[in-house]
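Bumping with the actual sequence this time:
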Amino acid sequence: MAVQHETELYAPLKTFFEERGYTIKAEITHCDLVGTRPGNPYPLIVEMKKTFNLPLLLQGLERQKLSEEVYLAVERNRSKKGAHNQRWGEITGLCRRLGLGLIAITLFKTKKPFVDVLCSPGEITYGQSQKVSKKKSDRVVREFNERSGDYNVGGSYGAKLMTAYREKALRVALALEVGVEMSPREIRDQSGIGTAAAILQHNYYDWFRRIARGRYVLTPAGVKALSQYADVVVGWQRIATAAEVQGPPKA
């Protein structure tokens, strides 16, 4: 079953790694899939393509600057043309030499997808992998942790991504009720976003308008954004409700 878009590979990969204890989110600092797991010093990074090609390989080498746990993931489909789809042993050997992990995903019409790890990161047989930049790696983990959920699909191209910054701006917009003017301090307290004043001032998305000194209102674009990302807002409300039901942690 040939995939039409690489985004179709995301769900099987997400499930595969979640079953192994990872928390998974998509499109973190341009990485298709990122995962974290207690005890792992670096994030898991997976780059996906419909077929194995040079851009994917180069992408994987670039991601080794961010983590030691980098996988390349492609579809395995016997009906596909091209020599590279039948030379898995050679491709696996190449990835192993470079310290990259390789995953082949087989999709079926009636059965669940099969995720096959052909080699794992760090199985270097020739040369050395790139040195990880701790600063860049920490940036990936920080962006991961600051997102409240997984609202994107790995492998997306040209779509507006729900980043940590967009989430904060959306919370600020949510605090500003339609037709009500508020001060940055009031919005900060209402939204729980400590950088609310800077978000209002920079106004990257044109969601806010300053009508007087220290007074802001929501623009039509801001109202539209709340409607456009209603699923994200509902997700926040569910998390808040679940936390209230669970109650404070026991001493």
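The tokens above came from a reply further down the thread. The chain has two domains: 6-146, 164-246.
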